[in-house]
Each structure stands twice: as structure tokens, then as C-alpha cells.
Write a structure and sequence with these properties.
- The complex is a heterodimer.
- Chain A has helices at residues 2-17, 19-54, 69-81, 93-103, 108-113, 133-140, 152-195, 197-206, 210-245, 259-290; strands at residues 59-63, 85-91, 122-127, 146-151.
- In chain A, α2 (19-54) crosses α9.
- Chain A is 73% helix and 8% strand.
- Chain A folds into two domains: 2-53 and 157-290, no CATH class; 56-152, Alpha-Beta Plaits (2-Layer Sandwich), CATH 3.30.70.3040.
- Chain A has a four-stranded antiparallel sheet.
- By secondary structure, chain B is α/β, with parallel strands linked by helices.
- Chain B is 32% helix and 26% strand.
- Chain B has helices at 41-48, 74-78, 96-105, 111-124, 140-151, 170-185, 197-203, and strands at 2-10, 16-25, 30-34, 56-61, 64-65, 81-84, 158-162, 189-194, 206-211, 214-219.
- In chain B, α5 runs parallel beside α6.
- The longest helix of chain B has 16 residues, at 170-185.
- Chain B is globular and about 45 Å long.
- Classes of the chains: A alpha+beta, B alpha/beta.
- The A-B interface holds A 1-3, 6, 198-199, 201-210, 212 and B 49, 72, 75-79, 81, 83, 85, 89, 91, 102-103, 105-111, 150-151, 153-154.
């Protein structure tokens, strides 16, 4: 108990000596952890959304109206016979008109000017594996009944690529700030250790172990690191909760992220910050302890 | 017991600090380590508490094979020793009492025991009246007494003193030596490095003399022969 109070007392004393540096360190850790938390959460949200979209319509085959409805029927049957296809739904011109009116209900000028007879009928295809959309494109190539083919796969791929780029950029930036925090912690501890050089020398002379001498510094580094990360994680949770109830949630984007994922991410970040503090303290005072 | 066999210490760059030292110091002995500046007295003491690693030879201190002792186990050796340096190395922001208590505090001793033991040590070194003074309010001799008390906090078997009277006037030096003899009479082995011939010649104890890193004299009740 006495040892513990010694460690805590000395760690607090060290931090009180340089409050601005401690503050800067905590802020750096906070920004770094917040970036990691939010970008990884964002990636999870995008993945969840793309899975949802991918469970819907994957390929829309717009039909040429000059071709007979029998040809349309034959095309639907051949699509249904492909192993990669789960379902095929025929969408009439009337249904296309209804859908158009719903989609553009906020643009009355467009609705009044459009010639609905030009809207084609279509086949809406759902695939067993959404990534097989290329196969459908190949199979439909040159078919006279087909006017145009649109797939959601390309859009989803572009979105995922964009998200991945965002995650890589933000994580790299987070690591850069994390590195700055690491240097700050090392510097703070080194300054503290140098200011206590005489005390450390006496401790070594009377037989205090290196671990015991290090403990206040380890405590300080881990404390700063954990405080920064805890605030970051708290802010991250708050941002996600806010997003769920804000306008963002009313858009096509659904803020769905599992609590398990967030808990896992939180624990992983806290554990990382613990390791971060331990390594920083080890590096920071190694020289002073060994002198 | 302290036992050295063919112990040498060569620093990086090749300068020889100690050369083939062989000697034995029994339990409860009082030994003066004498020699001119640079003769190797401090190096010999530092080898005993593993501040320096001997280049060759066998060293046994308080039942431990110092050369074989891994570095991380050095604290185990130091807990069996008391170390007094020429500069008292007191913490300026702590009182005499707190400086002594510090040694016990870092060893994890509980508060009640720290109080009891520190008071006993203050009495032993005769500094009770100055217990709550800060180092800058103490004389050189009093600071050395505090430093000795701190070295005794862990009940060491051996007390290694590196010129503890180096900065003191003759009267104070005699007082410090008397204190060390009192500690020695209680059963603690004392090894004191000094170049103060007046002390050595007056006290008639065993003398080990070093010159250029070599042990050139080992006399019971010897004198410090100045050239």
C-alpha cells in the first residue's frame, strides 16, 4: 500500500510540475485516438450500408420497347435460369412512371416536363453474390431485347474504395499525431527524470529496484495516454449517437453499427493506449535510470 | 565478508583503475582504504556495490558473487550494503528526518516502522535536535551524519564510505569516524576510503593502501604513510 501511494504521489507531483506539457500530450493522444475511432467506425457504417444495398437490387436491365413482350418474357426466363441469379422482377412502364414520380416528387417542374412514355420497362435482378454483376453484364451483351444495363456493384465498389482511402489517410494522420504524442510523453518523462536525478541516484544506492524507480514515470505515461484515449472514445460514442438521431440518419445513409463492434474498438484502443504509455515510459527514462 | 581475488578494472580506452587486487575483509572489521587521488579507492568501492563491473577476477560481498550477479539483481546486493559518498547527496526539499525516511519509504516499509526506525537512526547519529531542518540549514558534519543514518536504514551488513570526511574540518572528521566506529562495534563491517592521514594514524585500524590501482600494503593497525 505504501509503495502504491509512493508511486501515485510521485506521478502526480511530476505532472503538476509541467501541466502544459501534460495537457498537450493528452490532447495529442485524444486527437489521434479520436481519428482512429471515428474512421474505423465510419468504415464499419459504410460496410453495413453497402451490405444492405447489396441485399437489394444489384442489376437493372432496361428493356427495349421496340422488342416484343414475348422477347422480354424469354429474357426474364433465361435470366432466372442463371445460377448466380436469385430473383428477377419485371417492372412495367407504368411502375417505372410511379417510381419516377416518387423519386422526384420534390421537383414538380421536372415531373411536368418529362415524357413518361420514354421510361422503359425493366427487369430488376437480385444476385446470390452481388459481386457477380459482371457475369450478368457479359451474358446480356449483344442481346437485342436489352436497351441498357445499370449495376449497383460499381457504385458500391467506388464507395468502398473511397471509404478505404479515407480510412488509410485518416489512420496515417492519426499515427502521425500519435507519434507526436509519443515524443511528447518521452520528453515530459525525460525532463521529470532529469529533475529527479539525485533522487533516482539515492534510490539506486539504497537498493530500490529499477522497476520501482520506473513506476511513477510509467504511471504518469499510462495515465496521460488512458485519459486522452478515454475522452476520445467518449467523444466518438457521442458523435455516433448524435449522428443516429440527426439529419444524417434521414438520408439514404443508415447509421447502423453494432454495439459489439464499438465495445471491441473501445477496448482495443484502451489496450493500445496502455501499451503506448508503457513503451513511451520505458523509452523515455531508460537513459536516466541506467546512468 | 568481502573477498576479492585477482580483481582488475580497465576502463574503455585502456586506463587501468585496478590491477590484480586480492584481499579479504572479515565480518565486523573496520578497514581504511588509503591512497592518493586516482589510486583506485573509489573504483574499488564502486566495484563492491556493482556500480562498476570488474574486468576480471572474483568478488564476493555479503555472500553474493558480485560478478555473476545479473544487473537486474544489483538492488539485492545494495540492500545488504550501506553506501556513504563524499557528497552527502541529500534531497534539498526534504528535512533530515525525511531524507533518512526516504530510504525506508522507497523500500516499501510501512509508515509506523519508518517513523520508529528513523527516530532510532537520528538518535544513533546524534542529530535528533536537527531532525526537521533542511540540508541547507545543517553543517557539513551534520549532513554527513544524515547521510550515514540513511545508509544504515536497511540494517546493512557492510558500510562502504567513500571519503565521508573529505569536506570536513579535522574535529568534525574525528566525530564522524567515532560514529563509524560505534556502528562497527555493533557488528557492521566498515570500509572507509580516505586520504586523511591524521585520522588513519590516530585510530590504528587495518589499512589497505592502493597506488595506481595496485594494492601495495595491507597492515593490521597500520599507518597512512605519506610520501
Amino acid at each position: 500500500m505504501n509503495k502504491l501511494s509512493y508511486v501515485a504521489k510521485n506521478a502526480i507531483l511530476n505532472m503538476r510540475r509541467s501541466p502544459l506539457i501534460v495537457f498537450a500530450t493528452i490532447i495529442s493522444v485524444l486527437v489521434s485516438s479520436f481519428l482512429v475511432f471515428t474512421t474505423l467506425s465510419a468504415r464499419s457504417i459504410v460496410e453495413n450500408n453497402t451490405i444492405r444495398w447489396q441485399n437489394g437490387v444489384h442489376v437493372v436491365v432496361f428493356l427495349d420497347d421496340r422488342v416484343t413482350t414475348t422477347a422480354h418474357k424469354q429474357l426474364q426466363e433465361s435470366l432466372e435460369s442463371y445460377p448466380e441469379v436469385r430473383t428477377v422482377e419485371y417492372f412495367t412502364k407504368a411502375e417505372a412512371e410511379e417510381e419516377f414520380k416518387v423519386l422526384f416528387k420534390d421537383q414538380p417542374e421536372l415531373l411536368s416536363e418529362v415524357d413518361y412514355s420514354t421510361l422503359p420497362s425493366s427487369l430488376r435482378v437480385n444476385l446470390n453474390n452481388p459481386s457477380d454483376y459482371q457475369l450478368i453484364l457479359e451474358r446480356m451483351e449483344g442481346n437485342p431485347a436489352v436497351k441498357e444495363i445499370r449495376t449497383s456493384g460499381e457504385a458500391i465498389e467506388r464507395l468502398l474504395n473511397l471509404t478505404n482511402t479515407l480510412v488509410v489517410s485518416a489512420t496515417s494522420f492519426a499515427f502521425l499525431i500519435g507519434f507526436a504524442a509519443f515524443i511528447l510523453i518521452i520528453n515530459t518523462l525525460r525532463l521529470a527524470a532529469y529533475s529527479k536525478k539525485k533522487e533516482i541516484k539515492i534510490m539506486r544506492l539504497v537498493g530500490a529496484s529499477a522497476t520501482y524507480i520506473r513506476l511513477p514515470f510509467i504511471f504518469e505515461a499510462v495515465f496521460e495516454s488512458l485519459i486522452g484515449t478515454s475522452i476520445a472514445v467518449g467523444l466518438g460514442w457521442a458523435v455516433i449517437e448524435y449522428s443516429k438521431s440527426s439529419v444524417v440518419a434521414d438520408s439514404i445513409f443508415d447509421i447502423t453499427i453494432s454495439d459489439n463492434y464499438l465495445i471491441y474498438l473501445t477496448l482495443a484502443l484502451l489496450l493500445s493506449s496502455l501499451m503506448f504509455g508503457l513503451i513511451a515510459s520505458f523509452v523515455g527514462i531508460r537513459k536516466v535510470i541506467n546512468d | 565478508m568481502i573477498k576479492l581475488e585477482n580483481v582488475s578494472l580497465v576502463f574503455q580506452g585502456g586506463s587501468v583503475a585496478l590491477s590484480n587486487i586480492t584481499t579479504k575483509i572479515n565480518d565486523a572489521e573496520f578497514v581504511y582504504l588509503v591512497g592518493h587521488s586516482g589510486s583506485g579507492k573509489s573504483s574499488l568501492l564502486k566495484i563492491l556495490y556493482k556500480e562498476y563491473e570488474a574486468t576480471k577476477g572474483d568478488i564476493e560481498v555479503a555472500g553474493l558473487d558480485v560478478n555473476e550477479l545479473p544487473k537486474w539483481k544489483t538492488p539485492l546486493l545494495r540492500r545488504k550494503l550501506g553506501i556513504v559518498t563524499q557528497e552527502p547527496q541529500l534531497l534539498e526539499n526534504r528535512t533530515a528526518f525525511e531524507n533518512i525516511a526516504f530510504a525506508l519509504e522507497v523500500m516499501g516499509v510501512d509508515n509506523q516502522e519508518i517513523d520508529d526506525k528513523t527516530n532510532t537512526l537520528l538518535e544513533l547519529v546524534d542529530i535528533v535536535e536537527n531532525a526537521y531542518k533542511y540540508p541547507n540549514q545543517l553543517s557539513g558534519g551534520e549532513q554527513t551524519r544524515v547521510s550515514i543514518a540513511r545508509a544504515l536504514a536497511n540494517n546493512p551488513m557492510i558500510l562502504l564510505c567513500d571519503e565521508p570526511t573529505g569536506n570536513l574540518d579535522p574535529d568534525l572528521s574525528i566525530q564522524i569516524v567515532s560514529l563509524l566506529e560505534k556502528i562497527n562495534r555493533a557488528g557492521t563491517t566498515v570500509v572507509m576510503a580516505t586520504h586523511d592521514s591524521s585520522i588513519v594514524n590516530r585510530r590504528k585500524k587495518r589499512v589497505l593502501e592502493l597506488s595506481k590501482g595496485k594494492l601495495i600494503r595491507d597492515e593490521q593497525e597500520g599507518n597512512y604513510i605519506t610520501s
